[in-house]
Amino acid sequence: MAKKILTIESSCDETSAAIIDDQLNVLGTVVASQEAIHERFGGVVPEVASRAHLEAILPVLEKTFQRAGCTLGDLDAVAVANSPGLAGSLLIGLMAAKTIAFLTGKPLIAVNHLQAHIYACRVAYKVDPFPCVGLIVSGGHTSLFRCQDALDFEEIGGTIDDAAGEAFDKAAAMLGLPYPGGPSISRCAAAGDPKAIAFPRPLVNEPDRLQFSFSGLKTAVRYKICGPGGTDTASVRLTDRQKADIAASFQAAVSDCLVAKSMAALRLTSMKTLCVGGGVAANQTFRRQLEEAAAKGKIRLFIAPPQLCTDNAVMGAIAWERYRAGLFEPLDLNIYPTKPNKI
Question: Which CATH superfamily is domain 128-308 in?
Answer without folding.
Answer: ATPase, nucleotide binding domain (3.30.420.40)
